[in-house]
Design goal:
Elements lengths: L2 H8 L10 H50 L3 H20 L3 E6 L10 E4 L6 H8 L4 E6 L8 H7 L3 E3 L4 H17 L3 E4 L17 H9 L3 E7 L1 H4 L12 E6 L10 H21 L10 E2 L4
Parallel strand pairs: 1-7, 2-5, 2-6, 3-4, 3-5
Antiparallel strand pairs: 1-8, 6-7
Helix pairs in contact: 2-3, 2-5, 3-4, 6-7
């Protein structure tokens, strides 16, 4: 075809002022429709995550109750049922690409108080993939009243935090944590005290560190990157196929620390958690972690 004829054939096409040709113009026209389809898809997927998660947890609660009634100790049931079912929620229902990385000095057999940054309601499920033995959660007392979730927290020997004086709270929590340690369980905590509204790691409260000291347990930091992109506080929307990396640090001793030293430890752990999330590894003075995906 002659150059002039080809120019005439294109004359009827709408050309973008940006010089992108008819393909760019068509893409611009379809962009609003694609945005609508994407919103519909996210709404359907998010509905699936919420409904599927609660149904899956209901199955876990019933299975846990059944095994406990038969007489199996919760420490065994946790490994058989509770933890595997919890891990399925972010991995297979929320479709997160979840990977766990352990620091080489992390002692998987030692019962500890784990401190994890708090982003959304699936944080405890992610912890189930990272903590290699039975653990109980530290949470506000009202959360034990949530159907299904609260039942599981009660069955898993969760530790409720009641509204009392600070000294009374620390004493009660320390006694409860020590009791969990004696039966071979660790304790999971979220020292920020609430879900982060912006994805950043906010100030750590000293209370859980004092609890660890008074219970005779070390601190193990857990840094989770990618959960804010999966789901965030105040939103019902879940985004599939997001990469979530979980970094498990080494044990940090708490025995014999003064209240001032506990405060400095809390800040050091918080800063190291930020470092791990930002750089994909713990600070150099903690030794470089060796990635290991948890099966």
């Amino acid at each position: 075809m002659a150059r002039g004829a080809w120019a005439d054939a294109r004359a009827g096409c709408k050309i973008s002022p940006l010089g992108g040709g008819p393909d760019l113009a068509m893409a611009s026209m379809l962009r609003p429709q694609m945005a609508v389809f994407r919103s519909i898809g996210l709404a359907l997927f998010s509905t699936w995550v919420w409904v599927g998660s609660f149904l899956w947890m209901l199955i876990g609660a019933l299975a846990t109750i059944g095994l406990r009634l038969v007489g199996f100790p919760y420490q065994k049931v946790h490994g058989w049922v509770t933890a595997p079912l919890f891990v399925h929620v972010p991995r297979y229902i929320a479709m997160a690409r979840l990977r766990v990385h352990y620091h080489p000095r992390f002692d998987a057999q030692r019962r500890s108080v784990f401190t994890q940054n708090h982003i959304n309601l699936l944080d405890g499920h992610v912890a189930s993939a990272a903590i290699p033995h039975a653990f109980s959660g530290l949470m506000n007392a009202w959360q034990f009243k949530i159907p299904i979730y609260g039942w599981l927290m009660t069955l898993s020997k969760g530790i409720p935090v009641h509204k009392r004086s600070r000294e009374r709270i620390i004493t009660d929590l320390s006694v409860a944590a020590r009791a969990r340690k004696e039966i071979g369980m660790s304790v999971l905590t979220f020292p920020e005290g609430h879900r982060s509204p912006d994805g950043r790691v906010h100030a750590y409260k000293r209370g859980v560190f004092m609890m660890a000291r008074d219970a005779g347990m070390p601190i193990v930091p857990i840094a989770v990157a990618g959960m804010y992109e999966l789901n965030r506080k105040g939103s019902l929307v879940f985004h599939p196929w997001r990469r979530v990396d979980v970094y498990v640090g080494p044990q940090h001793e708490t025995e014999g620390l003064s209240d001032g030293e506990i405060g400095r430890l809390a800040e050091r752990v918080r800063r190291a958690t930020v470092h791990a999330i930002t750089h994909g590894r713990w600070p150099d003075d903690w030794d470089a972690p060796q990635p290991m995906e948890n099966a």
